[in-house]
Design goal:
This protein is mainly alpha-helical. It is built from 13 helices and 2 strands.
Length: about 240
């Protein structure tokens, strides 16, 4: 795999048409777009969530379950360039991997119908979960929108790491350098706990819990008063001078 193929897949999406010079030119700017937006994200606050209504997911499932025709594959190869077999192989492997990830993540409940087993329509929650994953794999910049809004989910982050492994490595490196620069300027600098939760989610780590509450106040220690006569031995008491 390579950052070049990830960038091209980020432009073409899961259902590419003929790949033209326009897609190649756009793919050259993907890594820089991630660099600029992630460097800004490190110090920016939360941004409004960009809602995108889900399309007809049944049609998308049909398209995913239908292997591309030989003509489609031939058009992709021609568009990528017959002189670049490495990019051809990487792009095809990446596209196959991304589409398979959606298929594996798609909830499948079957019923027996007259024509054999049929997959039931998705529930409301399942449909939105599938759509959230699809958006990331069909348009890699969606991961940046989710990070900006602090709404990134573990399933979206997993889809991004699976579908765009080299673009993910690039994003992780950019974030690491940007955070190091901030700490070099101010040793006390740190991400807000909300942004840190997003950062951890992106990397597949559990979000940090909120700081634990302070311990309850301890009762004030009281001085211990000793009865010296009770602490003395009988011999010590007898040897003391008696008042006359």
């Amino acid at each position: 795999m390579s950052l070049r193929s990830d960038a091209l897949l980020a432009v073409t999406g899961l259902f590419p048409k003929a790949i033209s010079p326009k897609e190649h030119i756009a793919s050259h700017g993907v890594a820089e777009t991630f660099t600029q937006r992630l460097r800004s994200w490190v110090t920016a606050g939360q941004k409004p969530f960009k809602y995108v209504a889900p399309p007809d997911l049944d049609k998308i499932w049909t398209a995913l379950a239908t292997p591309p025709s030989r003509l489609e594959v031939a058009n992709w190869i021609e568009g990528i360039g017959v002189e670049d077999p490495e990019l051809q192989a990487d792009f095809w492997a990446g596209l196959t991997r991304a589409r398979q990830h959606v298929i594996d993540a798609w909830p499948k409940f079957h019923i027996d119908g007259p024509a054999g087993p049929q997959i039931l329509p998705l529930s409301y929650d399942d449909a939105h979960e599938v759509w959230s994953i699809l958006q990331v794999l069909d348009d890699a910049e969606r991961i940046l929108d989710e990070m900006d809004a602090w709404t990134l989910t573990p399933s979206q982050a997993l889809a991004f790491r699976t579908g765009f492994p080299d673009l993910y490595a690039h994003a992780s490196s950019v974030l690491g350098r940007a955070m190091a620069e901030q700490r070099a300027k101010n040793i006390d600098w740190a991400l807000s706990w909300e942004a840190e939760a997003v950062f951890n989610t992106l990397h597949g780590d559990p979000p940090e819990d909120m700081p634990p509450p302070p311990p309850p106040p301890q009762p004030e220690a009281r001085p211990i008063k000793l009865n010296l006569e009770r602490e003395q031995t009988q011999g010590q008491v007898s040897s003391q001078p008696k008042a006359r």
